[in-house]
Design brief:
heterodimer, A: about 475 residues, mainly alpha, two-stranded antiparallel ribbon, 20 helices, B: about 500 residues, 21 helices
Chain lengths: ~475, ~500
C-alpha cells in the first residue's frame, strides 16, 4: 500500500462534492446559499489540505500521480477559479427552483478533475483527468434548462468536447504504439533513444503530434479551432462561462505543457528536430492573437466580447508555450494566475450586472460609472489588466511571457503580440468609454450581494497587489517551471 | 550620494497620498477637494525645491539615490535618482502641475474624479523623471495614459472621445516598441539587467545590429511623445480637445518626456544608434520646424495655432539632439524643453482664460481686445514674444544655443531651420494683430471681463521664469552642465 496521504486534497474535495449534493437534499431552507457557502468552505479547506499534504512534493504509483510545484501552482489557480465562480453564482442559481446542489457539486467535481490532470504524469490518467474536467462542464453549460441558448451551449460544447477528445486520444494511442508506454517520463526516453539511433522518429510521430495539438487547441479555443467558444460562452450561465474561460483554459494549458514541454521537449524547435511543434504553435499563437482581438472589436454582447478576448488571451499564453524554456513555463503560470483575477473579476461584474438588469448588452453599460462608481471602477481595473496596462497584474504577465519568447528567439512573434495589444486596448477601452464618457441613459444603481461583492474585492486586490508586488508569486511560478527540468 | 530620507519617493508619491485623501472626501464638497489638491501639489513643489537646494551642481553622478529590491525574479529594482537633466524636469513638472490645478478651479463637472485623475497623472509624470530602472520607468510611463485618457475624454471639448482614444492608442502603440527594445537589451546584457546606469555602461559592447534596432524602437516610442513629424497627428486633437489645465500639462510636461527619454536612455546608451540615425533625426527636426510653422499659419483656431506651434518648437529639440557631439546643442535642447514648457504652458493657459469668457477661440471673431482687456493683452503679447524668440526671454536663449551648437555639424540644415524663426514670427505677429489690435466690436465683446487674480497668480511664475532664464541663463546652464558633458562623452564611446 503506497502512501495515499498525497491524495488527501483530491479525495477530500471529491467527498465534499458528494456532501454538497446531500446537504442540498436535507437543507430546510431550499435556497442556493447553503450549498454555495458549503462549497466555498470546501474549496478553502482543500487549499489548506494541499499546503499540508502536497507542498512537500511526492509521487504515487511509479510517478503516475506527482505532486510537483507545477501541479501545486495550477491547483491553486483551479481552486481560486472555482471559489470565485461559486461566489458569483448566488444570483443565477438562486433563480432556479431545482438542482441547486447539483450545480455546485458538478463545479467541484470538475475542479477535482483539473487537480488530477495537473498531477498526471501518465497519458491515460491525464486523459481521464481531462474528461472528468469537461463532462461536468457540459452539464453546467446547459444548466439554465429554460433557455434555448444555454441548451445549445451545452450540446455544442459536448459534441465539440467529445470530438476533440477523440482526436486527442487517437494521437495518444499512436504515441503508445510508437513507444510501448504511456508514462510521460518513459515516452521521452524511448523517443530520444529512437531519435538518437535513427535520426528520425517516422511519419507516425508527426501524425500523432498533429492530432494531439489539434485535440488540445480545440479545448483551448485556439484559432482556427475556436468557433465553438463564443456560442458556448454566450449561452452558458455567466459564472460557468468565467470558470470555462479561466479554469478550463488553465487545465488545457496544463495538459499542453505536460505533453509538449514535458514529453516532446526535444522536438520544440526546428534547430533540434525537423519535425518540430514549436513553429506550428507559434503560427497558431500568431493567428489567434490577430483573429481573437480583431473579432472582439465588433461584439455587442459583453459575454461574447470577453469570449473573444479570452481567445486572444490564450494566444498570448501560447507565446509563452512556444518559448518552451524555464522562463516560458514560469511565464504562462504567472500569466494564468494574473488572468484568474482579472477575468473572474470581470465576469463577476458582468454577472452582478446581469442579475440586476437582465442585460448582457455592452451598450447598456452606458453611464454605469455614474450610477455605480465602485463597480465601474473595478470593471475598468479588470479590463485594463486584461489589456496589459501597468501597474496591474496583467501587464507583468504579458511582460514575462514576452520576455520568455524573446529569450527563446521569437522576437517576430513578440512584435506581433505587442501590436495586437493595441487593438485589444481599443475594445477594452470602448467598454470603459461607455461607462465613463457617455451619459447615463438608464441608471442602474447596483449593490452586489455579499458573496459577489467579496469576489470583486478579492479579485481587484489580486490584480493590483500582484501587479505591484509579484515577487512571491513569481517565485512560485519559477519553482513550478523548474520542476520540468529542461 | 545617498540622502538622509527618501526625498524622491516623497516627491513622487505625495500626489498619490493626496489622491487617497480625496477618495475619502464627500464628492459634493468641491472646494475642499480643490484645496486638498492644491495643498498636496504645493507640498510636492516645496519638496522639489528642497531637492534643488541640496543638489550638488558639480557632478554628473546620480544623487538622492534610492535603490531597493523590487522584483528579484525579473531583476527589477526600485531604483531612483536624479542628475542635471532630471532636476529641471522635476521642477518644471511640479510647478506646472500646481499651476494646472489652480487653473482647474473652474471645473464644475465630476470634480472629485477630475482631481483624482489629475493627481495620478502627476505621480506618473514625476516618476518618469526619477526612475533609473527600465521596468519602473515603463510603469510610470504607462500609468499616465489612463488618467490622461479620462481627463481628455470626460472634461474635453466637442470631439473629446475621439481625441482621448486616439491619444491612448497612439501613445500605447509607441510604448510597446519601447517594451520590445527593453526586453531585447535585457537579454543582450550580461549579466541581465534592467538598471539603466548598468545598461549605459554596457551599451557600446552590443553589436551594431542590436544597437541600431533597439535605438529605432526606442525612437518610435519617444518620437510619438515629442511628437516628431510624422508622428504628430495625435497632438492637435489631444491639445485642442483637452481642458485648459490638461493642455498645459500635455504641452509643458508630457511632450518633454519624449526628449527626456532620448537624453536619458537611447542617446547615451546606444552610441552606434545615434551615430547611424543622426542625420535623419535632424532632417525630421527641420521638417517639423517648417511644417509646424506653416500649419500654424493656416490655423483659424487660437488653441490649434498654439498646438501646432508646439510641433514646430519641439523640432528645434530634435535638431539639437541630432547634433549629439555638441554640449551646447544639448544644453540648448534642455533650455528649449524648459522654455517651451513655460511659454506654451502659459499660452494654453491664456487661451483658456479667453475661451472661458468668450466661448470661442476663433481668431477671426476677435479684434481690438487690447483696449478692453489691457492686462490680459499684456500677458498674452509678452508670451507671444517669448514664443517667437525675442531676446531677453528664454525662447531666444534656447534657440540661439541650438543654432550655435548644431551649426558646425549641419550648416545647411540649420540654415534652413533658421527660416522657421521667421515663419514663427509671422504667425505669432499675425495672431497678435488680429486678436488684440484693430477694430473693437463693442456690441459683441463689450461684456468681456478682465483676467482675474487667480489666473494672474497662476501665470505669473511662468512669466517671471521666462524672463529670468532669458536674462540670466547661467544658473540653469550650470545645473545641467556636468550631466550634459557626461552624456556627450558617453556618446563618443
Amino acid at each position: 500500500m503506497e502512501n495515499l496521504e498525497l491524495l488527501v486534497p483530491e479525495l477530500f474535495l471529491f467527498v465534499w462534492a458528494l456532501l454538497v449534493l446531500m446537504i442540498d437534499l436535507f437543507s430546510s431552507k431550499r435556497s442556493a446559499e447553503v450549498p454555495a457557502y458549503f462549497s466555498m468552505a470546501g474549496l478553502v479547506i482543500t487549499g489548506f489540505l494541499m499546503v499540508i499534504f502536497q507542498h512537500g512534493g511526492g509521487a504515487l504509483w511509479n510517478g503516475i500521480f506527482v505532486a510537483d510545484h507545477f501541479a501545486f501552482f495550477f491547483k491553486i489557480i483551479f481552486l481560486g477559479a472555482a471559489f470565485f465562480a461559486v461566489g458569483s453564482s448566488f444570483g443565477v442559481v438562486g433563480r432556479m427552483s431545482h438542482h441547486r446542489g447539483e450545480y455546485f457539486s458538478l463545479l467541484l467535481l470538475s475542479t477535482v478533475g483539473m487537480m488530477f490532470l495537473a498531477s498526471a504524469k501518465e497519458l491515460i490518467t491525464l486523459y481521464i483527468g481531462l474528461e472528468l474536467t469537461t463532462i461536468p462542464l457540459f452539464v453546467l453549460a446547459a444548466y439554465i434548462k429554460t433557455s434555448r441558448s444555454s441548451a445549445e451551449a451545452g450540446l455544442k460544447y459536448m459534441i465539440i468536447g467529445a470530438a476533440s477528445s477523440a482526436v486527442l486520444l487517437y494521437g495518444l494511442s499512436i504515441i503508445y504504439g510508437l513507444t510501448g508506454t504511456t508514462s510521460i517520463y518513459q515516452v521521452t526516453i524511448n523517443l530520444s533513444i529512437h531519435w538518437l539511433a535513427y535520426g528520425d522518429v517516422g511519419p507516425a510521430f508527426t501524425v500523432a503530434m498533429m492530432m494531439i495539438i489539434a485535440g488540445l487547441v480545440f479545448k483551448l479555443a485556439i484559432v482556427p479551432f475556436h468557433m465553438w467558444a463564443p456560442d458556448v460562452y454566450e449561452g452558458a450561465p455567466i459564472p460557468i462561462t468565467a470558470f470555462l474561460s479561466v479554469a478550463s483554459k488553465a487545465a488545457g494549458v496544463v495538459a499542453f505543457a505536460r505533453i509538449f514541454m514535458g514529453m516532446f521537449i526535444a522536438f520544440s524547435s526546428n534547430i533540434m528536430a525537423p519535425r518540430d511543434w514549436g513553429s506550428i504553435v507559434a503560427l497558431l499563437a500568431a493567428i489567434t492573437m490577430v483573429v481573437g482581438n480583431i473579432t472582439a472589436i465588433r461584439q455587442t454582447n459583453i459575454k461574447r466580447l470577453l469570449a473573444y478576448s479570452s481567445i486572444a488571451q490564450a494566444g498570448y499564453i501560447m507565446v509563452g508555450v512556444v518559448a518552451a524554456n524555464t522562463l516560458g513555463i514560469a511565464s504562462i503560470s504567472f500569466y494564468l494566475f494574473a488572468y484568474l483575477f482579472a477575468n473572474m473579476g470581470a465576469f463577476a461584474i458582468v454577472a452582478i450586472f446581469a442579475d440586476r438588469t437582465g442585460s448582457e448588452q455592452i451598450s447598456d453599460y452606458a453611464g454605469f460609472a455614474k450610477s455605480s462608481p465602485v463597480l465601474a471602477a473595478a470593471f475598468s481595473v479588470f479590463l485594463l489588466s486584461l489589456a496589459g496596462i501597468p501597474p496591474l497584474a496583467g501587464f507583468l504577465a504579458k511582460y514575462y511571457v514576452f520576455a520568455a519568447a524573446i529569450q527563446a528567439g521569437y522576437t517576430w512573434l513578440v512584435i506581433l503580440a505587442v501590436l495586437t495589444t493595441v487593438i485589444a486596448l481599443y475594445y477594452y477601452a470602448n467598454v470603459i468609454r461607455l461607462m465613463y464618457l457617455t451619459p447615463d441613459t438608464n441608471p442602474h444603481h447596483i449593490i452586489p450581494s455579499f458573496p459577489a461583492g467579496m469576489v470583486v474585492i478579492l479579485t481587484v486586490a489580486g490584480v493590483i497587489v500582484f501587479g505591484i508586488l509579484p515577487q512571491s508569486i513569481l517565485e512560485l511560478a519559477l519553482n513550478a517551471a523548474t520542476s520540468f527540468a529542461f | 550620494m545617498s540622502y538622509s530620507y527618501p526625498l524622491l519617493s516623497y516627491i513622487v508619491f505625495m500626489p498619490l497620498l493626496g489622491l487617497l485623501v480625496i477618495l475619502f472626501l464627500n464628492k459634493e464638497k468641491h472646494s475642499t477637494i480643490r484645496w486638498v489638491s492644491v495643498f498636496f501639489s504645493f507640498v510636492t513643489m516645496i519638496l522639489t525645491l528642497i531637492l534643488l537646494k541640496d543638489y550638488n551642481w558639480t557632478t554628473h553622478e546620480m544623487q538622492f539615490v534610492e535603490m531597493h529590491q523590487w522584483i528579484p525574479a525579473l531583476n527589477a529594482q526600485y531604483f531612483m535618482g536624479v542628475d542635471g537633466i532630471s532636476v529641471p524636469m522635476l521642477l518644471l513638472t511640479s510647478l506646472l502641475s500646481l499651476i494646472a490645478i489652480v487653473i482647474s478651479f473652474n471645473i464644475t463637472k465630476r470634480v472629485k474624479e477630475y482631481f483624482v485623475f489629475f493627481l495620478l497623472l502627476e505621480c506618473g509624470m514625476l516618476g518618469v523623471f526619477v526612475s533609473l530602472d527600465f521596468l519602473l520607468f515603463y510603469f510610470f510611463w504607462e500609468v499616465m495614459l489612463v488618467p490622461m485618457y479620462f481627463l481628455i475624454g470626460v472634461w474635453g471639448g466637442a470631439r473629446r472621445e475621439y481625441a482621448a482614444i486616439k491619444f491612448f492608442l497612439y501613445t500605447l502603440f509607441g510604448s510597446i516598441f519601447m517594451l520590445v527594445a527593453i526586453l531585447v537589451l535585457y537579454f543582450a546584457s550580461e549579466p541581465h539587467t534592467l538598471n539603466m546606469l548598468e545598461m549605459t555602461k554596457l551599451g557600446p559592447s552590443f553589436s551594431h545590429g542590436i544597437q541600431v534596432f533597439t535605438f529605432a524602437f526606442f525612437f518610435i516610442a519617444f518620437a510619438i511623445k515629442v511628437p516628431v513629424w510624422p508622428f504628430h497627428t495625435w497632438l492637435p486633437d489631444a491639445h485642442v480637445e483637452a481642458p485648459t489645465a490638461i493642455s498645459i500639462i500635455l504641452a509643458a510636461v508630457l511632450l518633454k518626456m519624449g526628449t527626456y527619454g532620448m537624453l536619458r536612455i537611447s542617446w547615451p546608451m546606444l552610441p552606434e544608434g545615434i551615430r547611424y540615425f543622426s542625420v535623419p533625426i535632424v532632417i525630421l527636426g527641420v521638417i517639423a520646424i517648417i511644417y509646424g510653422a506653416l500649419v500654424s499659419m493656416a490655423q483659424k483656431d487660437l488653441k490649434k495655432l498654439v498646438a501646432y506651434s508646439s510641433v514646430s518648437h519641439m523640432g528645434y529639440c530634435m535638431v539639437a539632439l541630432g547634433a549629439y557631439t555638441s554640449v551646447k546643442a544639448l544644453a540648448g535642447c534642455m533650455f528649449q524643453m524648459i522654455s517651451h514648457g513655460l511659454i506654451t504652458g502659459a499660452m494654453f493657459l491664456l487661451v483658456g482664460v479667453l475661451y472661458d469668457r468668450a466661448h470661442t477661440r476663433e481668431i477671426a471673431a476677435f479684434g481690438g481686445i487690447g483696449k478692453k482687456l489691457p492686462v490680459y493683452t499684456a500677458l498674452m503679447v509678452m508670451f507671444s514674444m517669448a514664443s517667437l524668440g525675442l531676446p531677453g526671454m528664454s525662447g531666444f536663449i534656447s534657440e540661439f544655443m541650438i543654432f550655435i551648437g548644431a551649426f558646425p555639424s549641419y550648416p545647411i540644415l540649420v540654415g534652413i531651420s533658421i527660416l522657421g524663426v521667421v515663419l514663427t514670427a509671422a504667425y505669432i505677429l499675425r495672431m497678435v494683430q488680429r486678436v488684440f489690435l484693430g477694430e473693437f466690436d463693442t456690441a459683441k465683446w463689450g461684456g468681456l471681463t478682465e483676467i482675474n487674480a487667480r489666473e494672474v497668480l497662476a501665470v505669473a511664475p511662468l512669466g517671471l521664469l521666462t524672463l529670468f532664464i532669458g536674462i540670466y541663463p547661467k544658473p540653469l546652464n550650470e545645473l545641467m552642465r556636468a550631466t550634459l558633458e557626461n552624456i556627450v562623452m558617453l556618446m563618443a564611446r
